[in-house]
Write a structure and sequence with these properties.
heterodimer, A: alpha/beta, about 20% strand, globular, B: about 270 residues, Elongation Factor Tu (Ef-tu), domain 3, 2 domains, binds flavin mononucleotide, binds FE2/S2 (inorganic) cluster
Chain lengths: ~300, ~270
């Protein structure tokens, strides 16, 4: 008998712990040519706001040692655009037993509230909503609001009453224990961390940033050890479930997050480098669980010994 | 209404048949990838993964120059521009590379065509050669202007002269080969001289901007192939933004070829 991989991420029942990181997985359909996306426990869609955003100027990405840096600036089609373009696909994906977590973006508290209300009205397929208060690439909203416990709490206090669906919060890689506690106190059902790490990459010949803006967000393997530490800190601080994100390239990386206390784990940039990586990572995770000799993957959560 | 259509790109392990220096910093790699060779359409590109280089985890987008469907081979040309292409240049005959393709839309050569002007600069010459080969097969006349910074970075002239029915003009910034100056100068002269029904341009943005503006002012259809830094190549990340008069579009799925009248150049 193979072990049970099913987990519950703050009310979202997933058949396995694998999820995808917002912004690295489009709206899911982009990957259907590579493998059956419904093998994942859940997907998380690109952050969408109450209206479409054009995003930042190009160049929007550069390669850096051990990963990449991006400054997409949350280009998105808006909630209506998402529903029109891929609502029927996402509804069908849910019927295929894959949960659909929709990420919510905003420039202000009113923006977040309006976007949540639109999701409530137009997106019955959403298994849960993830509030992004940690985007490093927009001038207001995003990380500007989510980098203090007070700012983060204020956003969740405003959106919490607008939805009964599981509410997740995407956190920045900063002040994790304090902010996690503040979010738990406001009724967040789960925490997703980490978002990309603010960084810079400079072309020394032209003396210009390699992006259209001075700074961007770092992602990829370079983030992994930092993310594992932050997930471990969050799991010590709160009792709500955590979705670990950052530099996952293998089943072993997923296992590290689970041992550090994560309930679910998202694959991010690796989806872009190796578009068919998810089935491989799932198989590697299954092999690890079998090797650990447990009946249920939940027995391994937070099982770090030190 | 179902889901939007995913990219036609597929992953394959391609055998490296040849990987050699062409001139200056320009390399040519010949890959054995039969399904890819069948599927590629001129102006499309492939994303090549290089292993063992921590500074290049994203795939390198490369336009193809020629395919040989019988042999099942695809020829790519690349310039050494960073750690990723340097690592690619070290790959040896007999090794395999993970390639993703076909990606993007490619040139639209469907209208009835009589005479076409092709203009390229730098590595932009790769998709221009692919277009020249297709036009030659269709029996359409084509004049080509190929630009480079200097003679050692100029390539593709022989392949073009062997195939095209028309003039092939080289231009270098420093005058070390062909005409001295930017490729735009002979291109604008040709536009004034002949009646073209299509202009294709791929190269630095200033070149594309100048040549396409002239073509449009003369009422000639013009397509440009845009280069962007891109993390995926199949529509999942929005890093490959192209500003157009309609909306923000993506170079990997909506392009790399755009109708020039639609593009907002910087
Ligand atoms: C191109 C790109 C776009 C992203 N867009 C978003 C986004 O819209 N919302 C978000 O919360 N995180 C976004 N992220 C961050 C990822 O979700 C993830 O938190 C981060 O990349 C770390 O994971 P990784 O190292 O596995 O990529 C983006 C990352 C990349 C590379
Ligand atoms: S490169 Fe990822 S969307 Fe175009």
């Amino acid at each position: 008998m193979s072990a049970s991989l099913a987990v519950n991420l703050g009310g979202i029942q997933m058949k396995n712990p694998l999820n995808t990181a917002s912004g690295t997985f489009g709206f899911g359909w982009q990957f259907e040519g590579f493998y059956d996306v419904s093998c994942l426990g859940a997907i998380t869609t690109k952050g969408c706001a109450k209206e479409a955003w054009p995003g930042n100027d190009q160049p929007r990405m550069a390669d850096v040692y051990g990963g990449m840096i991006n400054s997409v600036g949350l280009q998105n089609p808006g909630v209506r655009g998402l529903v029109e373009q891929c609502g029927s696909y996402l509804a069908e994906l849910r019927e295929r037993d894959c949960q659909v977590i929709c990420q919510v973006a905003g420039h202000s508290i009113d923006d977040y509230v309006a976007a949540v209300e639109l999701f409530e009205e137009l997106a019955p397929f959403a298994s849960g909503l993830e509030i992004n208060i940690s985007c490093p690439n927009i001038a207001c909203g995003g990380i500007a609001m989510g980098s203090t416990p007070e700012g983060a709490a204020e956003v969740i206090r405003a959106v919490r009453p607008r939805t009964k669906r599981p509410l997740l919060v995407k956190m920045a890689p900063a002040r994790v224990p304090e902010i996690a506690k503040a979010l738990e106190a406001e009724g967040a059902d789960a925490l997703t961390l980490i978002n990309s790490i603010p960084g810079m990459a400079i072309d020394v010949r032209t003396r210009r940033s390699k992006l259209s803006k001075p700074t961007g967000g770092l992602s990829g393997p370079l983030c992994h050890a930092i993310a594992v530490r932050m997930v471990w800190e969050a799991s010590q601080a709160v009792s709500i479930p955590i979705c670990g994100v950052g530099g996952v390239t293998s089943g072993e990386d997923v296992a590290e997050f689970i041992l550090a206390g994560a309930t679910a784990v998202s694959i991010g940039s690796q989806n872009l480098f190796e578009p068919d990586c998810a089935p491989r990572i799932l198989a590697e995770l299954e092999a690890w669980v079998a090797e650990q000799g447990v009946r249920d993957i939940n027995d391994l959560r937070g099982a770090l010994e030190c | 209404m179902g889901a939007p259509t995913p990219s036609a790109g597929r992953l394959a392990n391609a055998l490296v048949r040849e990987n050699e220096l062409v001139s200056g910093e320009i390399y040519r790699i010949l890959l054995e990838a039969p399904e890819l060779a069948q599927a590629l359409h001129e102006g499309q590109f492939v994303n090549v993964s290089v292993g063992g280089e921590a500074k290049q985890l994203t795939r390198i987008p490369l336009s193809f120059t020629q395919v040989d469907e019988q042999e099942g081979t695809v020829e790519l040309v690349y310039a050494l521009i960073g750690p990723g292409t340097r690592q690619l240049s070290r790959v040896e005959k007999g090794e395999t590379l993970s390639v993703l393709g076909p990606l993007g839309n490619g040139w639209n050569l469907s209208a009835p065509l009589h005479r076409v002007l092709l203009v390229s600069g730098g590595t932009g010459t790769a998709p221009i050669i692919a277009a020249a080969m297709a036009l030659a097969k269709m029996g359409v006349d084509a004049d080509v202007v190929v630009g480079a910074r200097s003679s050692d970075l100029l390539w593709g002239i022989d392949a073009l002269e062997a195939k095209v029915q028309g003039e092939v003009i080289a231009a270098t910034d420093d005058g070390s080969a062909g005409e001295k100056g930017f490729a735009s100068e002979p291109a604008l002269a040709l536009l004034a001289k002949h009646d073209y029904d299509l202009v294709l341009v791929c190269g630095p943005e200033p070149l594309m901007k100048v040549v396409s503006a002239k073509a449009i002012s003369l009422g000639i259809a013009c397509q440009v192939s845009l280069e962007r830094t891109m993390a995926c190549g199949f529509g999942a990340c929005s890093t490959c933004a192209v500003k157009t008069v309609h909306a923000m579009k993506g170079a990997c799925m909506d392009g790399p070829v755009f109708d020039a009248s639609e593009v907002i150049f910087p």
